Amino acid sequence: MVKQNHNANILDTEHVGRLLFKLATPAFFGMFVQTLYNVINTIFIGHSTNGEIAIAGLSIVFPVQMLFMGVGMMVGMGGTSLISRSIGSKENDRAERTLGNGITCIIILSVLLMAVLLPNIDRFLRLIGASNEVLPYAHDYLQIIVLGTVFNLVGMALLNFVRAEGNARVGMIANILGAGLNIVLDWIFIIELNMSVRGAALGTVIAQVVVLIYLSFYYLAKNSYLQFRVKNMRLEASILKPMFSIGVASFVQTAASSISAMFMLSTVVAYGGDIYLAAFGIIQRVMMFATMPAMVTGQGVQPILGFNYGAKRYKLALKALKIATIASTCFSLFSFAILYFIPGLVIKIFNTDPALVDAGIRASRLVFLSMPLMGLVMVGSTSFMSIGKAVQAFVTAVARPALFLIPAVLVLPKLLGLNGVFLSFPTSDFLTLILTIVLIIPIIKEFQRNAAAQSQSTNKLTPSPTPVKHIPDR
């Protein structure tokens, strides 16, 4: 591993477009492999014995996994915002204290989460809507996943901290390492040893342990821009308050998404049965793949925005926001074209049962109607976190799953039946887009005013060139 230059930071550049590409490309390939793992994992299970019911079991577990993700992202995204802004304002000591505090927090939260969930697995799964047939598969998978909570969440937080200092390459390697190992272990446990969902869960936890070891070595070997120091693990209110004020938006967003997913799954079962539950499980995996490019673009621009905002380089912050929005929208349009016009080809990769394929096509064409809007929504939500706008970050995080999606799930199925369940997604996405635009316009105007003021100040300080007297030709 190449040792970094600790006197400079990759984020300190005016070439914003090139930097975004440099940060987003490794993150894209890393997340691509990670997302590909989730897809392949479901494909293996879908083609195993009782594949349709096993996929339905994974679908039931999904909201609980989202809750884990919310805790990890709360510390990870909150710490990322504080770290990147601290680096931008030349406060590296504060950034390193954030790193240490974040590690301590995520360890404590992981243990608490495991202690609450482990004795109550079946109760949670019944609450979500697991039937007697689906419950054994969901229980076997979730039990192992919960036991690996600490490895999962600490690794997730460290991955965000690595990206906060501008090192997307290490994040890419971590994702590829974890996903690649996951795929190999899935083949061994699911296909060769016929362990079904237990094999999938076991492979996931083993891979998470390996990723955590890799990321820990990155910091302990002092290859990082920020240095890990044990003394910084002592919790400080001056660090925790700004970290959680931003990070809580990610947690509430994911927790609300988890709750809305529970409503969604129970409604899908009520209106369509286990076959549509399995189809919706496939759609969830496909959705992760489809939204990944826009999500990676949002994550890639986050440290750039945070750094330039902290350094008061507003013109570059505006440029980064514009480029990220255009790129993420283009990616979203491409995903929409595939998932709306040829969804059957995608569904058949997971399972070829005709009833399941028909259910998947029906759901896909309704769920992904709003896909072209997702680029702006994702970049907008990460932008608020990047620059420390806690209120706007919280509002946009909560709005889609809690204010819009849950009411839509409760109302639309009563009017439109099963179609109403799936149309809840584009309805909530459209309303979230409107809210995001309303909230981000003042931010853009603030950047423009500050950039204009800086430009005028620079012009006043720069002496005008002495006019050259023109001598006519004789």
How do you describe this structure in short?
The chain has 474 residues and is an all-alpha fold.
- Tell me the series of helices and strands, N- to C-terminal: HHHHHHHHHHHHHHH
Please state the CA-atom Rg, rounded to the nearest Å: 24 Å
**How much strand content do the residues show?**
under 5%
Q: Compute the number of strand runs.
A: 0
> In the residues, how many domains can be counted?
1
Unreliable sequence segments: 1-7, 468-474
Characterize the main sheet: none
Helix-residue proportion? over 70%
How far from one another are the termini?
69 Å
User: Which descriptor suits the 3D outline?
Assistant: globular
| Helical segment count | 15
List keywords for this structure.
globular; 0% strand; mainly alpha; 15 helices; disordered N terminus; 474 residues
Can you tell me about this structure?
- This protein is mostly helical.
- It has one domain (16-458).
- Helix content is 82%, strand content 0%.
- The chain has 15 helices and no strands.
